[in-house]
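Sequence and structure are kept together here, with a separate record for every protein. A complete record is shown below as an example:
=====
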Amino acid sequence: MTETEKTNDSKMPNDPTLDASVQWRIDHGTIDLREPGYRGTAEAILDAGLATEIRRLISAGKEADVYLCTYNGAPLAVKAYRLYRTSHRGGRPIKVDTMSWLAAHEFEMMRQAWKGGAPVPTPARRVENLLSMRYIGNEAPAPRLHDVRLEAPESFLGTVLAGVDALARAGIVHGDLSAFNVLVDDERAWFIDFSEAVRVDRLGGSPWVPLTEASKLLTRGLQALQLYFRKYNLTIETEPLVEQIVQRLDRFGVLE
């Protein structure tokens, strides 16, 4: 194997379950290993048929950006996972299949939550590392809970906790729950960023594994929300709430 072949081989995705278009570009050597900028991402969104117009960038996260787009005039948000670099991974290259898998995972978690009636933006479509969803907001996007001062904090805390419970009833536990991943639209709470979410409605195999993970994620998430609500002198009773949710999920008493 030549040095060039070794270099190319080190960049090849190692997951066989790729999007057909990604696999085709790998096989034909047409994958571009440079991170696309705004123009390149906008063109990718349009080429994928997820939108008919790109309005502007509305959010830049750790490993993905969110764009305000329209589809035949109707507003929607498109999340684009960065293909090769993220702000918290030291600039190391990230494989194409990895980011496509993250987008696919988040799309499926959102779809499961939405089907179960949980307060999440309605997912629309997913293509490779891109996924589109309902846009929450008016002229400006709905702010994050972290960035607002609530007029009725106790009532809104009840809304947020009801949303956490609704997610669990839909079979989803948010993996990164905090005031940064809750949008405030009038008096409604919308949960976003499901890249680390886990399914808890399928407990075959070793059911105590997802149940234990769900307990840890719920505890960590509620503690993160507590950091926000303590400025209103409000307390989240984390332990009994987590126990109540996990016991309901543990239909066969596995953890007992």
Remarks:
- The CA atoms of residues 200 and 249 lie 7 Å apart.
- The radius of gyration is 20 Å.
